[in-house]
Amino acid sequence: MYEIFKEILHLAETKEPCVLVTVVCTKGSTPQKDGAKMLIRKDGSGVGALGGGCIEGEIWSQAKQLLKEHGRPVLRTYDLNEDFSARDGMVCGGTMSFFIDPLTTPHSFETFAKEILLAYEGYASLALATIVNDRRGKHVPGAKFLVKANGIKLGSLGNETLERETIGVAGNIALHGGKIFFQASDGTDIYIEGFQTRPALILIGGGHVSRAVSRIAAMLDFDISIVDDRKDYVQKEDFPDAKVCIVSDYGKCFENIPFTRNSYIVVATRGHRYDDLALFAAAQTQARFIGLLGSKRKSMEIFKSLLKEGVSPEKIKEIHAPIGLNIGAVTPEEIAVSIMAEIIMIRYGGDGCSLKMPASKVNANSLNVPKK
């Protein structure tokens, strides 16, 4: 996403028109979910992805046509049960709605793009509301209204009543993140999307598991910080993807690290005593996720210590210990996969279960296989 908005700024500087396509609503099984984006340039090249196959090709073609004709923004909905599924060999079976927004003058979106990039970089989070469909012809599709978590507002939907109806939802999303496609009381379809700083991963302890976790987290676009009380264990060559390498006593290691609800802490020090110090400090933060590497027995012993030190039972219950999903991991790299899988699950609200269909669903009747 970051690269898409950076490119919009670049195109604004060169006064080159483009089209921003956003998946604003999905139902059922689809190759992409709400919020997926693609920026299509005048020459047909693009940044981002909408799911591939014929559906992406169709959207691409429409976007280029809108640019050519200086067309207006439009909402398009496709049923993947029909032609597109058959042509691509997909078995998604859902529906996808795309908002195709021609930025014929990218500088008109420039202010929004700058604010979104600032939100990604750690400044005030925000929500951007866009009119995507107007059944009664009262409003302008593509009109935008930005609400920042600090209360600042930019842009306009062109109607005070509509903005009043939208601002509460947008303000909540600016604070807590998320996205929503909803219908206003007058039937106008509005898409609101939150933009926050990139997720931050703070690794406490510079051992083999933390090194492996860092490599995977970098691929998932996390800002990574590594903390250890030994200088030799926070070397840049061991953590090339880390934004910050800190040598600090574990009890004070979070004093100079900014925290948001998009921060995730993994405690994996070299021993029980150090884990205790780090977890006590972590419990004082507002991190969204705190996890401890180790056995159930070790976790219970540390929980007892935290309770004696004044950490509330409610806060202790929030700690993920032992950290990770049960995938039978053994090596540091496998354990790292388990850890990041759990963090992704928490971040997006998954359940960690296998996606495999139950055996009862896979039979001759469900597959429409004729009996011999």
Question: What's this entry about, in short?
Answer:
InterPro entries: MoCofactor_Util/Proc, XdhC_CoxI, XdhC_Rossmann_dom. Pfam families: XdhC_C, XdhC_CoxI. This protein has three domains: 2-107, no CATH class; 124-195, no CATH class; 200-348, 3-Layer(aba) Sandwich (Rossmann fold).
Question: Which CATH architecture of the largest domain would you pick?
Answer: 3-Layer(aba) Sandwich
Q: What is the SS-derived class?
A: alpha/beta
Radius of gyration: 24 Å
Q: What's the CATH superfamily of the largest domain, by name?
A: NAD(P)-binding Rossmann-like Domain
> How many H/I helices?
10
Provide structural commentary:
Helix 6 (208-219) packs across helix 10 and helix 7 (272-282) packs across helix 8 (296-308). The model has no long low-confidence stretch (mean pLDDT 91). The chain contains ten helices and 15 strands. The strands form three sheets. A five-stranded antiparallel beta sheet has the order 3-2-1-5-4, with helices on both faces. It has helices at residues 2-14, 53-69, 83-88, 107-120, 160-176, 208-219, 272-282, 296-308, 313-318, 332-348, and strands spanning 18-27, 37-41, 46-48, 74-79, 95-103, 126-133, 144-148, 153-156, 179-183, 189-195, 200-204, 223-228, 244-247, 263-267, 289-292. Strand 14 (263-267), helix 7 and strand 15 form a beta-alpha-beta unit. It is an alpha/beta fold. It has three domains: 2-107, no CATH class; 124-195, no CATH class; 200-348, 3-Layer(aba) Sandwich (Rossmann fold), CATH 3.40.50. 37% of the residues are buried. The chain starts with a helix and ends in a 24-residue tail after the last helix.
